[in-house]
Amino acid sequence: MVCPPSICSVLQYLHRQLSSSIIQDIMALRGAGKASLAYFYFDFRDIHKQKLHNLLPSLLVQFSARSDPCCDILSQLHSAHDRGEQQPSDRAMVECLKEMLILLDAQGPTYIILDALDECPKTSTIPPPREEVLEFVDELVGLQLPNLHICVTSRPEPDIQAVLGPLTAHPVSLHDESGQQEDIANYVTSIVDSDRRTRRWRKEDKDLVIKTLTEKADGM
Predict the structure, then answer these.
(1) Which among 58, 139, 193, 204 would be 20 to 30 A from 84, CA to CA?
(2) How far apart, in whole angstroms, are the C-alpha atoms of residue 11 and residue 110?
(3) What element of type H or E holds 11?
(4) Lowest mean pLDDT among 38-47, 120-129, 203-212
């Protein structure tokens, strides 16, 4: 028995639901001029959404799009690299982002949302992509900017917990919440019942898929 793509993508879909709700709420604040926001979705299926080198340009562009001073900072980075002829290093982009965050911090709340960090790979390369992102988050927290708020969603992988645990002022664990587990089970059940391939499965096979995916979701 092989799970169809619609079933295999359930866990990723559930990851997105939480962060998307948070982003929508902050977008309302941003629209009222009460906050700055940038977000990034990691995706194990897309090589362009798995590394710090992908994350940094996205954050820089998002902050610059709604702030003329931030746009000026980005323009300086662009000019310093022969107006796009040279690719800026990750370090150069981090420093550029930090300059923006310091500027924005004086204006009000700034939010960075990083979704599904566990989908950033932990490979044998040195340093691993996930380790680079974790060090980046650590560095931003180290700025100690009072108006900077960072939200990271992830399944509870040991290496992620080891770094983010000491940094997290307000951790929220959903994998033990019975209501969350019920929502996940209901969603998976609806997928199994609506997919033309899984509708023909035996009841015991359906029950096994629902049980397995609900448990593997870890509340996310």
Answers:
(1) 139
(2) 29
(3) helix 10-31
(4) 203-212
